[in-house]
Amino acid sequence: MISTTFTARWVFPVSGPPLANGTVTVRGDRIEAVEPRGTRTPDDDLGNVALVPGFVNPHTHLDLSGARGLIPPTDPDHFTDWLRGVIAYRRTRTAEQTQADIRAGLDECLRFGTTLIGDIAAEGASWDALAALPVRAVVFWEVIGLTEARYQSALDDCGLKAGLSWADDAPPTVFRPTPLCRWATSPHAPYSAHHNSACGQLFMGNAAIHFAESPAEIELLTSKTGPFVDFLKQLGVWEPTAFTAGVRDFFATWPKCAPPVLYVHCNYLPLDVPLAPAHTIVYCPRTHAAFQHPPHPFREFLARGVRVCLGTDSLASNPDLDILAEARFVRSRDPDFPGDQLLRMVTLSGAEALGWATDCGSLEPGKSADLVAVPLPDSDATDPHELLLADHAGERRTMFRGAWHDRVPREGVEPSQPGFVDPAP
Ligand SMILES: [Zn+2]
Questions:
Q1: Distance from the alpha carbon of residue 284 to the mean position of ligand 1, in angstroms
Q2: Which terminus of the chain has fewer Cβ atoms in its 10 Å neighbourhood, N or C?
């Protein structure tokens, strides 16, 4: 098997310091070596680019990719109005339209250099699209139900269709996990999932849950009052017995050995809640800003040693699915926040959160050759992360498992979105 050595202006292994004109040697679908300049003679000089691990976007909803710009985020006190907009939008989409939206969103993720995606999908709708393309994925099957019976029914549906282990009488699987595409579940949120059932679910395996997203959710959990009561009554699903715990109690019931769980948003999460090492906070910076929430506590949680990674959320609340743009946004708001931490939050931390860190997330010998070449500005900087995090356009090239994929299926994609990098001629 032939190995190829690439060099670039900067190589960012993430697991170690940046290497000026460093090299990455790829053999087959694996990284063979990551070395400083001068150790090996490169075969291919990629020029003025940053060579970084494939990006990881641990939180999106590809099925909402047709909603870009259609449901403007509200202020924090009217979050339930935005949810009404999402529900109304979903009811307008046929199954065929939803599949086209998923493919368009996935195409956008890939062209921005994403090589690992965590997607929350009602009825696992994104499975076929994700399993068919050159990308790693965890598909979180969304589970909703405020009564125990409804929640269990939704969970059974998930188990029966996916052949997941908790369904004792599961038929031959419809969606069989592949080496690159895995199943998990997502009790949707504390305001939409029966608490005791959701807690049990989170103990069973990898899971994601939207958490502490709005002031209304905190009020609902704390006192069973507020905008969510009317919202749920209008939907005909109000069930006051569903909510058994406030935010602190909700966490206090988890044992420290709980399996990996992604807590998504956490905009209003108290700083002292107990989180286990396997737990991750997913912060979605531009969506957070669009809803005008107060400053996110991610710095404080990082200082506590809690893993935090960035996510885009969906196009119902975000301008695009570019996870690097999330890091650049944080950098623009807080130039003092360390660039190496931001890069980790869109690569290795996401891979750890999704359970793929032994395979990807950093440039290390033995890991999958998943890399992105990101064009850099011509300027210089004391910290090379500044170059990577500067708002700079240009076509990104992605290598997945040792093969460059400059082109992916383009069906249904809307070009010319702001900030949209379109490699097609
Ligand atoms: Zn979400």
A1: 9
A2: C
